[in-house]
């Protein structure tokens, strides 16, 4: 699987951009603030229907313009075109596959499989639980339409329950209606717990093997899924026990939206006791494990997006990463290209980014 062509119009700092990409390593280099990360973001958006950075679609439309258009041509067993239309105001985002509009994002997931690796991903071990949940959700939504449906319905119910909690703080007679939203939270929450437990178990095995190779057998990496509610059959009880606190807080304080992943190296919590090098090695192992998991689950090799991540990795970790890129399409951004070219054999395409244009 690879992207053969990317076309952008009025997206971020791009006025018009059309680029042919190689089914191999594509390097986009240039000074900061010229559009390299925006280029990565465009591919990510075509794959997932959302930005990994912006909170609102209107932020993605070029300054002074009313709408933006992105198109990715994806080659796999066949060829397909993914079009995304973004609007500054008044209209919702539109997505089409081969010029046929889709109504739900689960119709998009899987058409362009991606793994993204950024400097922020190196902090996945050290960062808060929200970043680790986002990591789980992105990969599982790509791999399972059932998971996407469950997580979407869960967050819809969660939003409604939180709105009701705020209303109850002003009118206690509304408390009897909480069960309306507790039921879907329990139903979809327990489904999500099962999906996440299986996913982390599979990723953990692959990541440990990779981590073992990077550290020459000196370290064992374990990932443990830590659900906020330990037992599925306790879900309803936990929600009921938390009601008084929830009303005070105006939000639901128990559930899968509080889940976490624990990283251990040789039995020690990496977040608390690991060095920065160990934390980065664990993050790299997990990212490469994502690639292997997608390959084993789908039979397709994903597109690897590396956004200025090399500057955050030492020589040993860079070498290991390059060795594992293999025949996978990779889009890599960096500032200095000469040093990168010395380490990568067979770079398919090298492009200089200047003020939103490819030279």
- Structural class by sheet pairing and helices: alpha/beta
Give the biggest beta sheet.
Answer: 6 strands, antiparallel
- Biggest sheet, strands in spatial order? 2-1-4-5-6-7
Write the H/E string, N to C: EEEHEEEEEHHHEHHEEHHEHEHEE
Q: Give me the number of helical elements.
A: 10
Q: Termini distance?
A: 26 Å
Radius of gyration: 22 Å
Helix content: 40-55%
Low-confidence stretches: none
Global morphology? globular
Kindly state the number of beta strands: 15
> If you average the pLDDT, what whole number results?
93
The proportion of residues in beta strands is 15-25%
What does this structure look like?
The chain is α/β, with parallel strands linked by helices and 359 residues long. It is built from 10 helices and 15 strands. The chain has helices at 36-48, 129-143, 145-168, 179-214, 235-241, 243-249, 270-273, 276-298, 315-325, 337-343, and strands spanning 2-11, 14-20, 25-29, 67-75, 79-87, 94-97, 100-101, 114-117, 221-226, 260-265, 268-269, 303-307, 330-334, 347-354, 357-358. The strands form 3 sheets. A 6-stranded antiparallel sheet has the order 2-1-4-5-6-7, covered by helices on one side. A hairpin with a 2-residue loop joins strand 14 (347-354) and strand 15. It is globular and about 65 Å long.
Compact description:
This protein is an alpha/beta fold and about 350 residues long. It has helices at about 35-50, 130-145, 145-170, 180-215, 235-240, 245-250, 270-275, 275-300, 315-325, 335-345, and strands spanning about 1-10, 15-20, 25-30, 65-75, 80-85, 95, 100, 115, 220-225, 260-265, 270, 305, 330-335, 345-355, 355-359. Helix 2 crosses helix 3 (about 145-170), helix 3 (about 145-170) packs across helix 6 (about 245-250) and helix 4 crosses helix 8.
